[in-house]
Amino acid sequence: MRSMVRLKKLRHPLHDILASPEYTARLLSMNTPNTVPVTVTATAPSPIQHARALLKDLQERFVAFREYMPLAIGIDKQLIALMPDTNRKILRIALGIHTKSLRYMKVMEKATVRCDLDGNAADAITDEHRAHASEVLRERFKKDAEQRKAQRQAAEAQRAAAEAERRHSEKLGQLAAKFARGS
User: Fold this and answer.
1) Does residue 102 fall inside a structural domain?
2) Per the structure, how many domains does the chain have?
């Protein structure tokens, strides 16, 4: 008895009302359209969306971004100096998107010189940086190949299952026809 009292104290006051059959029946009998106006609030753009917009702007303004040239080390400081109102976090995300792109990595793998914003030669690319670009590309291509292989295997398994199901249904149909004739 004592445990029952304790359970009643822990219950929310609306629990009995909401769980009652009368309330449930009333809810189910309400067949009215939703008359409450629903307002959709636009969610604030994410930092990645801002970064993509900034990257698009950078590609329009600077040849080094437009042509996917290897960027000089410290280019972020140059960009901040040219565009002081730019959010540093958004700029770093935009630079990350740009420098991790497949096109940039392919150029980086073969290039010998880094460029400033105008496309002028700035400093040499080290063998270590070229090797890093090659390794990233190799890993990315390997991962893509593995994903394509997994997709092909899944598609093949699905086709095999569909064929097995078709054969099973065909056999059942044959058996049903055989026994229907026999009776």
Assistant:
1) yes
2) 2
Question: What is the pLDDT at residue 54?
Answer: 92
Based on the fold, state whether residues 147 and 102 are members of the same structural domain: no
Q: Give pLDDT tens digits for 33-78.
A: 555 554 545 577 788 899 999 999 999 999 999 999 999 999 999 9
3-state secondary structure of 124: strand
Closest Cα to residue 56, out of 90, 107, 106? Answer: 90
Q: What is the DSSP secondary structure assignment for residue 117, as one 8-state letter?
A: T
Domain with 150, as residue range(s), is: 127-170
Cβ-contact 108, 125 below 8 angstroms: yes
Specify the pTM.
0.60
The Cα 91–Cα 80 span in angstroms is 8
Q: CA 71, CA 122: separation in Å to the nearest integer? A: 9
CB proximity list for 97: less than 8 A, separation 6 or greater: 48, 51, 52, 55
